[in-house]
Structures are given as structure tokens and as C-alpha cells.
């Protein structure tokens, strides 16, 4: 489970890079193996060990030829006769390589049977049997290793694209297939950029992104179809007729339809279609119908019909509350592990793989050292294990606790409670790892190890109890956008959020759609209540996402964002400390000190943005105050804005965005950036009087002084009252206040 | 307006405004106490508030009243934040035993916080009530009966008090003194044990004769019913010959159908409480000024150290344990019209006692119960902070524990049976004051928890306090330091730092069983008289010492237990360090307790008080200036110029004046004369052995309240901060426990030697045979 999750996590970061890996030829892709696992070098340690890579094969491809090329280095202590590296595909051995001590480095190329590479995730396994002695030896001897250089290893796939089935049900598994190795591109053809249409587009883009699960989706938009990619056309029936008429294709009759992407018609040939790409049309006789169709497209659980067109009569959605969403835990609630995506799992053997489940905590979750996440586990384990067998529990890679599996007769725990400090969890995504360490009862060298009895099952009706903690956060925190779109998605359906486009370009619209789709993928909830606005000012309440080129931004936004400051340029291109190190080395070598070419100069932020190939993100408190934020994304021109927003799908880019203001050079893969913390404000509540909380957190020193004044005033008032009482007592009066 | 506090007449608007500000401010403080802050901010807040408290405490530009109120609000805020954190963030259910330990500690802390906050409320505005002068020729002066109840105390002690009472400054025809003797009742004199009967008869006759000599009254009754309260009630309301009870009055004027005493005001004095001559002069004016006043209480001043003070040798260096009550708390209670009757050194108005049918008798602290009943009828009380009786503390540790256990049981009885918090007729401040006075006596339960809590962790690893070190630093430490600073501000002049903890630790082991029994059976306790004037002929270990040795062993072994815990669980290092610190504080108090239970010998017949007064020394015809440095019933210590021709055996005259201008000429015999540092120091005995001389001596020694006031004031100058106070106590603890173990060793050696010699003699005798 853990290995699979790691592989999937690696894939998430890898797929985007693949977009820049140009296919070697048409219908050929050369996939670096380092993109299939987080580690660039994989070590196979021990006498019997393996590395399994999950190779994604999408349904759209029919593999015609496949070759595996890999580089390895083995330990020189290995005994050739008893050391082999076996390559297996879905368990079938395809090749064996002698691990020779006298030639410890090697490169191997082999053909993989294309027929075995059916759609799905295929297990490509490097299995090493390693020994350094004829006799029985220590299976964990440190000299038993082979390293696979995955950066120098490739899987080359030649494939024939399959025609898109003309049934809507194919959208779920064929068209928007998360197994596509390259970052998919989806084009939206929009009738106009009015708020109502943009809302449909946002729903459609989010629906597509949700289907692609964790994968980046590069979204573009304009009023025409784009050849070579999947298209979604959105607009009135009249618009669709206008759009498709030049292609000689009839407009579908129903609200949601799928067809092959039409090719531009020429005079000398009949209408052609690109059967490898789909055109999905989303329309309606009126805005309500169109919206229902968009909601249908955006909703993952919607049952698609096996027909090319479908009408939508009524869509009923579950109520979406604050702090809901995929794997998002609400403080004070209890969750079964199965609800967090964990299935009952059994681990077996000497060094079994760990188990893992992920969860998300709200971005404004305020952990406390005295509040604990209570993990209540149902576990069964086998008999005949040594008493030091344990189930180790980690949170985000940090060890937290262990459950002893110390009964040699085996046993089970019903409701074994482990209290983990809430501070061990972070805002956003967390992983809880459960790694069994199962030890055979006999481990003497050269004796038979019975590992068949080493069992552990963790049941998915185990649960996690989340403590009741407060929601409170110091803002601005641009980095939290990449956790779950916070604060825009505090209500994950964007109920309280507005997207404001400050110019009328399709690039800005596409940039917004990329961000909305990205956040929908993070939360798992489509933006059902999203609003778009073209108002020139920040009139709307709630959260606001402002997008547009710098020149189009309203003065009010510029003023509120505080873009009048400066930043050091060049941005952080070199790692910190590098310049000092060079200077020191030069001095030792007797070379004169050189001025660092990267010495940053303070330059106006707006000037830097306008200079091009840069994007600026800012977050600040809404001018009306309160807990609302404005998130601003801008660039010198709309092309940079779109390019920047598309690159935001990439984790490397996301990691550069932090604080209250970030300027980022759009230069992959490093994306040099500079950030400023921004003026602090606070969201959430530590108490029940919002105004007072707000003042307390935004002006703590003023509040402290005000409090001191209040204390003095109270003391004086009390003194007066006490003196009056005393005087009345002295005068022999009865005291009504007593 | 006796104290001129409210010079400006309050207007309705300004008072309403003040209430408004106070109400809004309180709401704000309560709200701000409840909001949760990130830990770093709480650290700033907690320690910042502490700094503010420190500054305000030293802000000389603020008057003391304003300082007190600002400090009270700040400390209230800190403490409330801590308690809310403690309640909502640190409790949980980690397991049955952990939970029990955790809950016990929480409840003990909550109890302590409640007492602390109530203490702030009670002492928010202490009143130094001025003395209202009286005109002794005023025909409207009320008549006063001085009642001296006695049971089994030495007759000489009774005689001393009666003699001093007979010399009170008050019109003779308006003052009557009564010895109320329960040791010479008919029941006692007819005791089946002939020796007891004879002793009672001797006592009866002796006291009667003494009363006749002093021209005061002797009163006894037929049977010993309802202890001291019954004795006094009988004197106040019992008719001679009624209900089969008998009166023995020297005055024929009392008819058999009338109460024995008839004064408007009653001054009640324990028989070891020798009054100063001015006690009526300083108190009766209060009754004349306020018709609704039922009580004037005055402090109990003790001439001798209590066993803890004596065995730890703190009596002359630090304020006595009871000074906090009589020098601080009663002043605060008086502001709220809640000063209560403490059994002696108090004047009560007969009329009000008659209204409630005499002294209340549901509890064994009938004095406080009576005051509670009268307060509930809307009557007033007053407290005059000038010491005007001189009494005796219990001499032995067991007597001390007996006395304190009685008080604890009695106040717990009031809490359980009367529930002053909801008693009708009391104002809310009075309810809180009485509730606080009763609640305080449950300290034994909390103290046991505070002692055992660190042991629970160090020995058993029980999760007693679920908080991180940072949280402790952010919440608990500021609260504790704030409480220490507030206590120091309120009571620093009358209570040495950590003396409260010492006395609570000393008593807790013994009063917890009594408390628990009283809580479950509030009517069960019975009155036990505290023995006075006991002598100890040699150093000895108190019979109540054993629990402290057990506590010592437990606290000492807790250190290696902590080491073991860290070795097994290295992550427990910080909790172990914290509990070690806590355990060390407990250890200091245990060491002090060990010092307190090693009873120093007490063979002095009369207690000597240090003083420093200018006198004249008559030597033949000459008069020399001199100073009295100490004083007792037997004599005085004098100093004069070294040139004075005084030698051992000389007879001299002490010529002294009291605060009221009365001159004493007392013949003395020099029993010791030493010249040193240019001064002649003489130890002198009073020579007059006849009754009249003795009366004069008593009047001189005990007559002037200024002497006791000065003694208090001198002792209160030894003020120490908390840290120095702890160091001082630690030194005393080490000294005391070393004395204890050295004494034990000597005792062991002498016992072994004694038994060894006896065995040897026996063995030798058997050989010879």
C-alpha cells in the first residue's frame, strides 16, 4: 500500500514534467523511470528484494512496441553464481542479468511484449537475488546491494491511438483517463466570457480535472475549436451551430454530447474527424439547462449513459458544508479509515511493506499540544512471531507510536487506541503510515526462517477521532492555496467566493479556469456555487480571486495589494550560501574576489512584473476588512498570465509561492522567486466576538494598551464604588449594593 | 464618615457610571480570559502581564488602594486564563488511574484557585477601623459584663485574666466581671472519683475566694452541658435555680428568677486571654455609634510561640501564623461587614444574642456560627485591629493539631449544615466571605493531593497533568508567580512567604480524616478543649511524628524513581524534571514538618516578651534612666548606663507609665547584673508577693495594648521576598530535621544504653546467683 501510494505520489509530480518531454516520434513516448518513483536511484538491498514500478497504460493507447532500457551498479562483493537481477512484468520473468562483481556497472536494453501492456497499471518489477557466499549468509548483509539509476533508465512505448468511443460513459475512463503519461491538454471553446458562461466553463474544467484525479490538466480557452486535443464547447445552441457549421458537423440536440473532433473542412475533401480526440458539447435551451449539464459533467458520481448524447432533467446534489471535501477531516468528528480511502489490508512476510492513508486537515486548523488525534485501530496478527514484533505508526514520516505484537500465540486488538498530538499533523495533506515490523520467532543464522506465519491485518473499520480544535490562521498564506485552495475554497463549492477577471482576454479566462480546476482537484469538490465578475472594484463580499494583466488591474486593487514596494532582482536563482562558498574558494586559490553576478538589486515590483515572463501572486485582506481575502494573480501580459497559471500545476512552481506576495520567474524547472510576508491579518476565531478578535489579532499592541487602560479604569471605578460603600457604612446606612 | 474615604458625596450618575465601567470591563476581562491564543502569543501575554504586575507593585506614584485593585484585576485575569486552559485543554481520559490522579489534581487546583480568588475579593478593601473614643462620664455608657469561661485551666491562669479584667478602664458601676467556672460545677464536685471531686472542690473554693478578693463574681452551674457555649449561655440567660441548675453568686442582689448577668454588652475572654486595661475604652464606642452592631472582635495576640514557631525558632523573626488572619483577613472581612466572632477577645450585644436565643450550638465552632446567624438577621459587626488581649498558644504539637482540627471540623460543619453561600439574610459579599472562611479549612484535602501528585508520576508514571513544558511556561508559571506576588502584596507584612504551605502541610495529614468524617457526618464532631500552659521538661518527639517520616521516605525515593523513569522513557525527561522540582518543594515542607515535630523543652513558668520601653529605675533616692527590654509576669529585663551602681541582690524600683498616664512603682530584686558594651543589663524579679502587688504587676505587664501593637509592628518589619522566603524556610527545614534526627539518635542511644545496662545487670545478677 505504502509503495503504491509513493508511486502514485511520484506520478503526480512526474506527469507535469512529462509534458515537456517531447515524444521521440509521433505516437512514441520515452518515459524516464525516475518519473515513476520519487527516488532517482533505487537501491535493492538484501538477499531477496525487489522494486515494483507501476507503469500507467491509458485506454486510448494500443501499445505496438515497448523497450526497457536501464542502468545499474551492483556491489562488488556479490557472488556471480548466486546473484541475479530479474525483470518481471506483471510477475512474468522477461529477462535475467548476472550481477557480476568484476563488471559491477551495466546497461541493459530489452523488449517488452506489447501484448502484455494492456491498459491499466502494469507492474514492472526489478527483482534481485543477491548472495556473497556459497554457504548460508546474513540475508541483510550490507554488501548485498544493487543500485538502479532510474534517471538513466527509460521505458519507450510505441502506441497507436484508439478512437474515442462515442458514448458519454467513455468520458469517465477513456477520455479523461488519469493513466495518460503525458500531461493532458483540454481546450474549452466558449461562446463568450460573460459570468454565466464562465461559470459553466469553470464547472466543465473542474469536472475534467476531477476525472484526471491528481494529474495536471493544461486548460486553454477561446471561441474556436483547437485541433489535436480534446475540446469542450460551451454555449447556446446557436453558438454551437455557428461553431460547428464550418466543419460540416451537425450540432447535437441534447445538452451533453460527445463526438469525434471535427477537422477543418477543405474544398477538396469531405468532412473529416479526428477520432483520437473528443469534442464534448455542453449546451441548453436556457441557462438553467446548460447549468444542469455543466453540473452533470462536473459531478464525479453522476452515472453516464452509454449514448453519445444525453439530456439532463434534474440534478440533485448533496449539501456541501464548510470544511468538507475529499479526505478533509472536520475537527470534533470521527472517521472510519475506509472513508479515508483505506481498505482492509494484510501484510505478510519478513519485511512487509507499510500501509498508509492520507487525510487533509483544514488550512485554518489550529493544532494544540494538548489535543490529540485518537487513532482507534482494529488489528489482527499472526502467531509464532517474536515478541519484539511491532506495528509502527508514523505521521508525515515522523515516528509517533508503536503497537506491540508481543503475544507469540497471535492475537487481535479491537479498538487499540493511540493518541497522537495534534501538533504532529500539519495543515492540509497528511499521511499516516502504519509499518509492521514482523520478526520470525527463530532468526539464528543458517536455520530455517518460517516467515509464512508473519501476518498482520489492519481493518478498515478502524477509525480516527479528530479533536475539537479552533479554526484560526494568520494570513496572508499563499502557500495554502496549494493545499486546498484556501481561503477561496473554505466553502469548497466556492459558495462565498468570486473570480474577478479584469480584462476580457481568453488567456485570462483560461488562467482562471486552470486555477479553479486545480483547486477543485485539491478539494475533490466542483465549484458549484462559483461566481465570476467583471466589476471594476472589489464590491463583492467574501473571498475574491482577481486575475488579469497588470495594466488591467483596477486602481483599487493595486492600492489594496500594496504593489508599490520593491523586490530584490535577480530572484533566488542560486542556492543560499553558494556565493559565499565560491568567494571563499577563490580566496584560497589566490584569485581576486569577484562581484557576484547575482547580487540582487531592489526594483519596483510593478516594473519587474511588466518586464515580462514573470507572474505575481498577492494575497491581502479585503478592503472591507473582516476575514475576507483577495488573492491576486497577475503578469505583465495575458500570455505570461496563462503560462504562469498553467505552470502552477507543477509542484516545483507551487513550492515557490508563499507569504503575502510572490514574484516568480517563469523559468522551469527552478522558477526563481521572491516573496514578502505581507501585512498580517487573521481569519477564523479564537473566541465569539469577531470584532474584538479581529482587533486583538491585527493590532495586538494597541489592544494591550487599551486593555491596560481598561484595567486602570476598572480599578478606579471599583475604588470609587468601594469608597462609596465604605462611606455609607460609616454613615450607618444600609448598603443596597452589598 | 469615620475614615474620610468618600469625601465627595457620590451622585447617582457617577455611581452608575462607575458600575457601568466595572460591568463592561468585567465582561471584557472575562471574554479575554476565555479566548484561546497560539502558544507564542500566550507566552507574551502571560509574561507581559507578569511584568505589568511587577511594575504596578512597585509603582510608588499609585496609592496602595489603587495598586491593590489593579493588581487584583490583572491577577484575576491571569488566573482565569490559566483555569480555563486547565479545564478545557488539559483534561482527558488516558486511563482510570491516570484520570483519577489527573482529576484529583485538577480539583485540588480548582479549590486553590477558588480560595485565592475569594481571598482577593475578601481583601479587596481592608478597613483599618478607627477607634471611637468614649467619655467615661457619659451616663449613657452601656453596662458591660466580662465573662471568663474556664474549664480545667490552672487557677493561676484564671486569676491572671480575672485580675487584669478587674483593672479595666471603665466606670466601676457599669462593669461586672464573672468567672464562669465549669471546672467547679456541682457535677464535678460530686464526681464518683474522690480525687477528682476533691480537686474540683479545691478549685471551686480557690476561685471563689480569689473572686471575692478581686471583688468580682464567680459563677458556676450544676452540670457541664454544651461545653463553653453552654457555660457562657448559662451565664447570660440561665436563671438561678431554673431547670434544676444552680448558681453560686457572691452578690445577693441576684434573685433566683433572674439571669445571672445583665450587662448591655458582654466581653468574652478565654481564661488565658489577659485583657489590656484599654480594651473597653477602645471598643465600646462602636456599639454606641451603631445600634445594629452585635459584635466587636479584636485580635488574639499570643505571648508564646505555637509549637511550629517554637520548634523551628521563627517566633521572634517572622509574623505568627495567626497574624495574617487578625492583621489582614479580618480587616478585609470587616469591609464587607463579615468580620466574625472568634470565641474570645470580643464584645457582643446582649440584646442581639437574646434575639437568637443565645449562642448557636449546631457546630463546635459556635462562635463563627453565632456571628453567621446574627449577620443573617441584618446585624453588623466590627473589627478593631489593635491587639488588646494577650493569650497563650498551644504548647505541644498534639495540642496544636487538636485545636486546628477542631477549627477545621467546626468550619466544615458550618459549610455542610448552614451552607453560607445560599443562606438567607446574608448579603452576597457576606456569603462569599463566610463561604471563603469555611472553604479555607478544606485545605488538607488539597494539600494531600499536591503532595502525592508528583509521586504519582514519578512512581507510577500516571499522567497527572496533560500539558507541554511550553504550555506550563505560558499558562501555569505566570499564574503562579502572579498569585505569589498578589499574596505578597496583600499579606506580605503579616505572612512570611510559604508559611501558609508549611502550616497546611503540618496539619493536612491529621485533619483530612477529621474533615472527611465531618463531610459525611457533619453532626458527629464534639468539642474538645485545647490544653494550655503545658510544659515539656525535655526535648522529645511528638507522638504525631510518624506520618512525616513516611512522607520523607516517599519524597526522597521519588528522585531515584525519576531517574529510572528517564532511563526507561527518555522522552519523560522534562516531566521528570518538573515533578522533581515540585517534589523538592514538598521535601522542603516535609523537612520543616520534621523540625516542627521535634518538640523543644518548655520549662519556663512564664513567657517573656521582648519589648523596648523607656522607664526610670529608682535606686534609693536616685532615679536613673533605663529601658525595659523584656517583660514577664515574674519580672523584667532592664538596661541602664554601665556606671549605675546596681549589683546582683539589690532592691530597686521600676517607675513606668502606661499609654494612659498611669504610673507604676514596682519593687524589683536584681537577680543578675552584667556590664557589657557600656551598658548594664539586669535581670529583675517582682518583689511584691501580696495580692495587691500582684494585681499591680499584672496591670503593668498586661495592661498596655501599645506594647502588643509595637511587638507586632516590629516583627512585621522582617519582610522577605518569595525566593528569600523559600531559602529561609529551607534553612529552617534543614536545621529542624537535623535536630530531629540528632535527637532521635540520642534517644535511640540512651534507650539502647538503658536497656543494655538493665540487661547487663540482670545477666550479672544471674551469674552471681
Question: Could you walk me through the main structural features you see in this protein, from its secondary elements to its overall organization?
Answer:
The complex is a heterodimer of chains A (738) and B (769). Chain A is of the alpha+beta class and 738 residues long. Helices cover 22% and strands 32% of the residues of chain A. In chain A, the strands form eight sheets. Chain A has a seven-stranded mixed beta sheet with strand order 28-27-29-33-32-34-35, with helices on both faces. In chain A, strands 11-10-12-14-13-15 form a six-stranded mixed beta sheet, with helices on both faces. The longest helix of chain A has 31 residues, at 700-730. Chain B is an alpha/beta fold. In chain B, helix 4 runs antiparallel to helix 16 (443-460). Chain B is globular and about 80 Å long. The termini of chain B are far apart. Classes of the chains: A alpha+beta (738), B alpha/beta (769). The interface between A and B is large, with 45 and 58 residues.
Amino acid at each position: 500500500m505504502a509503495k503504491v501510494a509513493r508511486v502514485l505520489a511520484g506520478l503526480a509530480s512526474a506527469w507535469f514534467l512529462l509534458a515537456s518531454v517531447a515524444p521521440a516520434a509521433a505516437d512514441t513516448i520515452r518515459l524516464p523511470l525516475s518519473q515513476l518513483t520519487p527516488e532517482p536511484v533505487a537501491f535493492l538491498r538484501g538477499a531477496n528484494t525487489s522494486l515494483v514500478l507501476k507503469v500507467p497504460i491509458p485506454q486510448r493507447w494500443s501499445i505496438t512496441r515497448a523497450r526497457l532500457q536501464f542502468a545499474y551498479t551492483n556491489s562488488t562483493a556479490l557472488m556471480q553464481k548466486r546473484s541475479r537481477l530479474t525483470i518481471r512484468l506483471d510477475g512474468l520473468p522477461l529477462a535475467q542479468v548476472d550481477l557480476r562483481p568484476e563488471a559491477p556497472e551495466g546497461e541493459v536494453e530489452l523488449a517488452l511484449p506489447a501484448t502484455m501492456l494492456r491498459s491499466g497499471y502494469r507492474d514492472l518489477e526489478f527483482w534481485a537475488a543477491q548472495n556473497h557466499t556459497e554457504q548460508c549468509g546474513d540475508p541483510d548483509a550490507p554488501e548485498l546491494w544493487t543500485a538502479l539509476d532510474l534517471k538513466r533508465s527509460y521505458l519507450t512505448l510505441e502506441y497507436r491511438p484508439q478512437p474515442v468511443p462515442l458514448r458519454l460513459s467513455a468520458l469517465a475512463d477513456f477520455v479523461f483517463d488519469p493513466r495518460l503519461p503525458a500531461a493532458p491538454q483540454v481546450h474549452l471553446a466558449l461562446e463568450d466570457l460573460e459570468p454565466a458562461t464562465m461559470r459553466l466553463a469553470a464547472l466543465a474544467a473542474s469536472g475534467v480535472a476531477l476525472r484526471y484525479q491528481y494529474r495536471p490538466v493544461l486548460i486553454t480557452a477561446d471561441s474556436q475549436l483547437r485541433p489535436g486535443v480534446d475540446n469542450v464547447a460551451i454555449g447556446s445552441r446557436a453558438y454551437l451551430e455557428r461553431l460547428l457549421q464550418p466543419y460540416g458537423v451537425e450540432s447535437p440536440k441534447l445538452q451533453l454530447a460527445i463526438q469525434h473532433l471535427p477537422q477543418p473542412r477543405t474544398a477538396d475533401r469531405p468532412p473529416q474527424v479526428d477520432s483520437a480526440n473528443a469534442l464534448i458539447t455542453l449546451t441548453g435551451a436556457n441557462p438553467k439547462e446548460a447549468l444542469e449539464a455543466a453540473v452533470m459533467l462536473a459531478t464525479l458520481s453522476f452515472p453516464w449513459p452509454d449514448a453519445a448524447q444525453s439530456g439532463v432533467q434534474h440534478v440533485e446534489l448533496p449539501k456541501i458544508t464548510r470544511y468538507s471535501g475529499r479526505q478533509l477531516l472536520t475537527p470534533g468528528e470521527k472517521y472510519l479509515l475506509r472513508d479515508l480511502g483505506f481498505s482492509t489490508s494484510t501484510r505478510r512476510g519478513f519485511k512487509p511493506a507499510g500501509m498508509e492513508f492520507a487525510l487533509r486537515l483544514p488550512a485554518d486548523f489550529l493544532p494544540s499540544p494538548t489535543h490529540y488525534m485518537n487513532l482507534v485501530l482494529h488489528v489482527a496478527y499472526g502467531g509464532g512471531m517474536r515478541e519484539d514484533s511491532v506495528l509502527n505508526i508514523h505521521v508525515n514520516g515522523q515516528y509517533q507510536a508503536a503497537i506491540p505484537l508481543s503475544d507469540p500465540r497471535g492475537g487481535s486488538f479491537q479498538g487499540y487506541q493511540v493518541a497522537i498530538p495534534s501538533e504532529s499533523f500539519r495543515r492540509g495533506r497528511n499521511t499516516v503510515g502504519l509499518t509492521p515490523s514482523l520478526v520470525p520467532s527463530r532468526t539464528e543464522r543458517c536455520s530455517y526462517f518460517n516467515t509464512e506465519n508473519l501476518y498482520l491485518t489492519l481493518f478498515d473499520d478502524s477509525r480516527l477521532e479528530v479533536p475539537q480544535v479552533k479554526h484560526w490562521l494568520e494570513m496572508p498564506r499563499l502557500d495554502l492555496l496549494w493545499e486546498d485552495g484556501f481561503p477561496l475554497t473554505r466553502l469548497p463549492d466556492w459558495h462565498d467566493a468570486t473570480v474577478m477577471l479584469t480584462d476580457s482576454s481568453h488567456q485570462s479566462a483560461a488562467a482562471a479556469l486552470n486555477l479553479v480546476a486545480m483547486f477543485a482537484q485539491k478539494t475533490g469538490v466542483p465549484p458549484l456555487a462559483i461566481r465570476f465578475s467583471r466589476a471594476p472594484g472589489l464590491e463583492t463580499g467574501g473571498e475574491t480571486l482577481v486575475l488579469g494583466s497588470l495594466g488591467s488591474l483596477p486602481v483599487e486593487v493595486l492600492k489594496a495589494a500594496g504593489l508599490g514596494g520593491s523586490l530584490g532582482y535577480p530572484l533566488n536563482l542560486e542556492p543560499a550560501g553558494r556565493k559565499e562558498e565560491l568567494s571563499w574558494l577563490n580566496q584560497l586559490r589566490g584569485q581576486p574576489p569577484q562581484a557576484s553576478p547575482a547580487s540582487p538589486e531592489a526594483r519596483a515590483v510593478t516594473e519587474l512584473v511588466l518586464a515580462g515572463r514573470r507572474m505575481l501572486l498577492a494575497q491581502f485582506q479585503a478592503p472591507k476588512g473582516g476575514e475576507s481575502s483577495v488573492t491576486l494573480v497577475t503578469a505583465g501580459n495575458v500570455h505570461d498570465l496563462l503560462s504562469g497559471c498553467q505552470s502552477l500545476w507543477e509542484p516545483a512552481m507551487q513550492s515557490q509561492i508563499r507569504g503575502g506576495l510572490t514574484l516568480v520567474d517563469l523559468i522551469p524547472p527552478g522558477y526563481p522567486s521572491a516573496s514578502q510576508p505581507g501585512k498580517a491579518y487573521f481569519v477564523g476565531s479564537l473566541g465569539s466576538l469577531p470584532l474584538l478578535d479581529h482587533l486583538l489579532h491585527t493590532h495586538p499592541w494597541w489592544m494591550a494598551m487599551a486593555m491596560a487602560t481598561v484595567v486602570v479604569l476598572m480599578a478606579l471605578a471599583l475604588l470609587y464604588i468601594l469608597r462609596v460603600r465604605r462611606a455609607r457604612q460609616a454613615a450607618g446606612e444600609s448598603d443596597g449594593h452589598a | 464618615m469615620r475614615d474620610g474615604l468618600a469625601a465627595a458625596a457620590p451622585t447617582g450618575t457617577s455611581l452608575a457610571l462607575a458600575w457601568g465601567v466595572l460591568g463592561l470591563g468585567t465582561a471584557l476581562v472575562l471574554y479575554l480570559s476565555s479566548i484561546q491564543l497560539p502558544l507564542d502569543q500566550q507566552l507574551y501575554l502571560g509574561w507581559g502581564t507578569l511584568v505589568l504586575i511587577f511594575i504596578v507593585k512597585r509603582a510608588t506614584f499609585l496609592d496602595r488602594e489603587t495598586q491593590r485593585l489593579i493588581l487584583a484585576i490583572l491577577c484575576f485575569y491571569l488566573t482565569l486564563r490559566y483555569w480555563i486552559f486547565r479545564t478545557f485543554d488539559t483534561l482527558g481520559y488516558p486511563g482510570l488511574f491516570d484520570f483519577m490522579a489527573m482529576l484529583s489534581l485538577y480539583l485540588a487546583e480548582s479549590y486553590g484557585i477558588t480560595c485565592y480568588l475569594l481571598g482577593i475579593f475578601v481583601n479587596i478593601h481592608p478597613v483599618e477601623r478607627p477607634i471611637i473614643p468614649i467619655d467615661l462620664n457619659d451616663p449613657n455608657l452601656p453596662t458591660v459584663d466580662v465573662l471568663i469561661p474556664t474549664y480545667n485551666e490552672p487557677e493561676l491562669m484564671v486569676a491572671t485574666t480575672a485580675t487584669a479584667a478587674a483593672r479595666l478602664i471603665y466606670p466601676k458601676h457599669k462593669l461586672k466581671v464573672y468567672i464562669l467556672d465549669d471546672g467547679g460545677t456541682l457535677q464535678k464536685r460530686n464526681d464518683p472519683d474522690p480525687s477528682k471531686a476533691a480537686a474540683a472542690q479545691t478549685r471551686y473554693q480557690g476561685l471563689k475566694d480569689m473572686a471575692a478578693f478581686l471583688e468580682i463574681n464567680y459563677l458556676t452551674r450544676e452540670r457541664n452541658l454544651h461545653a463553653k457555649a453552654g457555660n457562657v449561655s448559662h451565664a447570660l440567660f440561665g436563671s438561678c435555680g431554673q431547670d434544676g441548675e444552680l448558681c453560686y453568686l457572691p452578690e445577693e442582689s441576684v434573685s433566683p428568677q433572674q439571669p445571672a448577668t445583665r450587662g448591655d454588652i458582654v466581653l468574652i475572654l478565654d481564661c488565658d486571654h489577659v485583657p489590656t486595661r484599654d480594651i473597653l475604652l477602645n471598643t465600646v464606642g462602636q456599639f454606641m455609634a451603631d445600634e445594629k452592631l452585635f459584635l466587636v472582635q479584636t485580635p488574639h495576640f499570643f505571648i508564646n510561640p505555637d509549637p511550629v514557631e517554637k520548634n523551628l525558632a521563627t517566633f521572634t523573626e517572622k509574623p505568627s501564623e495567626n497574624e495574617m488572619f487578625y492583621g489582614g483577613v479580618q480587616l478585609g472581612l470587616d469591609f464587607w461587614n463579615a468580620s466574625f466572632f472568634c470565641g474570645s477577645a470580643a464584645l457582643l450585644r446582649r440584646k442581639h444574642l437574646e434575639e437568637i436565643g443565645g449562642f448557636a450550638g449546631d457546630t463546635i465552632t459556635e462562635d463563627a456560627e453565632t456571628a453567621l446567624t446574627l449577620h443573617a438577621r441584618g446585624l453588623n459587626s466590627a473589627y478593631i485591629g489593635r491587639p488588646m488581649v494577650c493569650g497563650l498558644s498551644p504548647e505541644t504539637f498534639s495540642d496544636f493539631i487538636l485545636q486546628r482540627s477542631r477549627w477545621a471540623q467546626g468550619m466544615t460543619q458550618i459549610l455542610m449544615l448552614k451552607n453560607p453561600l445560599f443562606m438567607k439574610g446574608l448579603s452576597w459579599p457576606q456569603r462569599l466571605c463566610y463561604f471563603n472562611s469555611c472553604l479555607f479549612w478544606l485545605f488538607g484535602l488539597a494539600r494531600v493531593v499536591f503532595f502525592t501528585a508528583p509521586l504519582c508520576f514519578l512512581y507510577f508514571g500516571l499522567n497527572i497533568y496533560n500539558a507541554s513544558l511550553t504550555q506550563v511556561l505560558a499558562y501555569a508559571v505566570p499564574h503562579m508567580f502572579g498569585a505569589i506576588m498578589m499574596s505578597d502584596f496583600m499579606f506580605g507584612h503579616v505572612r512570611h512567604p510559604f508559611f501558609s504551605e508549611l502550616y497546611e502541610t503540618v496539619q493536612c495529614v491529621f485533619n483530612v480524616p477529621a474533615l472527611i468524617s465531618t463531610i459525611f457526618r457533619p453532626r458527629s464532631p464534639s468539642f474538645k478543649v485545647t490544653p494550655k500552659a503545658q510544659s515539656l521538661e525535655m526535648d522529645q518527639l511528638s507522638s504525631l511524628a510518624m506520618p512525616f517520616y513516611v512522607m520523607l521516605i516517599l519524597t526522597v525515593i521519588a528522585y531515584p524513581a525519576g531517574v529510572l523513569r528517564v532511563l526507561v522513557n527518555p522522552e519523560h525527561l522534562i516531566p521528570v524534571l518538573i515533578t522533581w522540582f515540585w517534589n523538592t518543594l514538598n521535601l522542603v515542607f516535609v523537612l520543616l514538618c520534621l523540625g516542627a515535630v521535634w518538640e523543644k523543652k518548655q520549662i519556663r513558668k512564664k513567657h517573656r516578651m521582648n519589648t523596648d520601653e523607656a522607664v526610670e529605675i529608682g535606686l534609693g533616692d536616685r532615679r536613673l534612666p533605663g529601658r525595659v527590654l523584656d517583660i514577664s509576669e515574674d519580672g523584667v529585663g532592664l538596661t541602664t548606663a554601665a556606671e549605675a551602681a546596681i549589683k546582683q541582690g539589690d532592691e530597686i524600683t521600676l517607675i513606668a507609665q502606661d499609654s494612659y498616664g498611669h504610673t507604676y512603682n514596682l519593687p524589683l530584686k536584681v537577680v543578675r547584673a552584667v556590664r557589657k558594651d557600656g551598658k548594664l543589663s539586669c535581670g529583675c524579679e517582682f518583689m511584691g508577693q501580696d495580692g495587691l502587688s500582684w494585681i499591680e504587676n499584672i496591670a503593668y505587664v498586661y495592661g498596655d495594648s501599645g506594647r502588643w501593637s509595637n511587638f507586632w509592628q516590629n516583627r512585621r518589619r522582617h519582610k522577605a521576598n518569595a525566593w528569600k522566603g523559600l531559602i529561609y524556610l529551607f534553612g529552617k527545614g534543614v536545621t529542624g530535621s537535623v535536630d530531629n534526627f540528632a535527637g532521635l539518635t540520642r534517644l535511640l542511644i540512651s534507650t539502647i544504653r538503658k536497656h543494655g545496662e538493665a540487661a547487663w545487670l540482670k545477666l550479672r545478677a544471674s551469674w552471681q546467683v
